Amino acid sequence: MHDIKWIRENPEAFDERLKVRGLSPMAGPLIALDEARRAHLTRLQEAQSRRNAASKEIGKAKAAKDNALADRLMKEVADLKGLIQEGEAEERRLDEELAGALAVIPNLPLADVPVGPDETATRRSAGSASRGAWISRRSSISSSARRWGSWISRRRRRSRAPASSC
Question: Are 25 and 15 in contact (CB under 8 A)?
Fold first, then answer.
């Protein structure tokens, strides 16, 4: 998955490498998603800091026997708690949206990779690669391992067998 920080710092390079892959530029929409996510996080942190400050003020108000102020602050803390819980759900949604958008973007080719036709294209072939050959070779390897394992276990059993007293 791509690093959104790098995309924010190098949007032109990101879009250029996407163009080499034959894709349209995506830095703008990704940066907009990230800015919305970051702005939401800032609002959420401000609400959390206000809730913490109000909680401290509740203690001071109760110590000063100012119940009216303490009740008003407790209501504010309860409202902020609900707001923060909704904000955290929205934060998870925004995180998933950004991660999903980044996850579908293919890897970018390095700058020194030449632009041109696919180098992995088959130029010619001789014979055919048989899937059955691989499976039979694999099964012969596993059967060899089983034989080796059974030989080892027989040796262990023999070495643990009690000696006869004849």
Answer: yes
